[in-house]
Amino acid sequence: MKKLAFGLLIVAAISACKSNSDKKYLPIYGSKQAVTKTVDGKNVTDTIYQTIPNFKFVNQYGDTVTKKNLDGDIYIADFFFTTCPSICPIMARNMLKVYNTFKNTGDFKIISHTIDPKHDSVPVLKKYADKLGVTGSTWWFLQGKKEDTYSLAENNYLVLVKKDNSAAGGYIHAGYFVLVDKQKRVRGAYNGTDPKEVDQLIEDIKTLQTEPDEMIAQ
C-alpha cells in the first residue's frame, strides 16, 4: 500500500472484524505472505504480516528511542511539527484525550514524530510537551533525521508527509493517528481532527488490550 492508502481504508480501519466466536478483532493492514514450514513432520502454513521496521530517534528528554523501546506495547504514531498553524493544535488536543485515558496503563505509548527536525530540537520538543501537560514516558515527541522520518511515515505508517512552501507552515501532512499492536502491525488509522474517530480509537485500543498476543486476524 502507498501513502494515500489510508484515504481508502479509513472506514474499514474503524470497523472491527469478527471471529467465529463473534469476538471483536481489528483488521491487520499492510502486506502479508504465507510461509510454510515443517512442524512434527507436518507442513504448517503461517501468515506473516508486515511490521514496523527498526528506527532510531531522540525524545523530548534527550533519550534514544528505538523499536525495542516499544516491545510489549500497543502504541499510536502520528506526525506533526511544533509551529504548525493548522491541524496540529487540534490533533494535540484530541491526542490529550487518548493520553489521559491510558497514561496509567503499562502497555501503551504514543510517539509523535516531528516532520521539522531542524527547528524542533530536543529543548523545543520538551517545551512543547510541558505546555501540553505531558509528563513521564507514555507520550514521546521524537526528533531524528528528516529522511528517516519521512520514509517511515510514507512506507510503513502509510501517512503522507512532505515539505511544501506554499502550505500553511511550510509542510503538508495527513492528520492520522495510526494504531499499532504489540507485534508492530498496523491495526487502524483515525482522523486526528475528528473527535468521533478519536473516540473510536480509544475503544479500539481497549479491544487490542484484550486481544491474545497470538491472535491472527480472520
Task: Itemize the secondary structure elements and their pairings.
Layout: H1 5-13, E1 17-18, E2 24-25, E3 32-39, E4 42-49, E5 56-58, E6 64-66, E7 74-80, H2 88-102, E8 108-114, H3 122-132, E9 139-142, H4 146-155, E10 161-163, E11 171-173, E12 176-180, E13 186-191, H5 195-209
Structure notes:
- The protein is an alpha+beta fold and 218 residues long.
- Helix content is 28%, strand content 28%.
- The protein has five helices and 13 strands.
- It is globular and about 60 Å long.
- The N terminus is likely disordered.
Summary, kept brief:
By secondary structure, this protein is an alpha+beta fold. The chain has helices at 5-13, 88-102, 122-132, 146-155, 195-209, and strands spanning 17-18, 24-25, 32-39, 42-49, 56-58, 64-66, 74-80, 108-114, 139-142, 161-163, 171-173, 176-180, 186-191. Strand 8, helix 3 (122-132) and strand 9 form a beta-alpha-beta unit.
SS strand fraction: 25-35%
What is the overall silhouette?
globular
Q: Give the N-terminus to C-terminus distance in angstroms.
A: 20 Å
CATH level-1 class: Alpha Beta
Report helical residue fraction: 25-40%
Arithmetic mean pLDDT: 85
Total strand segments: 13
Order of helices and strands: HEEEEEEEHEHEHEEEEH
Looking at CATH, which topology would you report?
Glutaredoxin
Query: Structurally, how many domains make up the residues?
Result: 1
What is the correct CATH architecture? 3-Layer(aba) Sandwich
Strand order of the largest sheet: 9-8-7-12-13
CATH superfamily membership: Glutaredoxin
Query: How many alpha or pi helices?
Result: 5
Q: Low-confidence stretches at least 5 residues in length (pLDDT < 50)?
A: 1-21
Structural class: alpha+beta
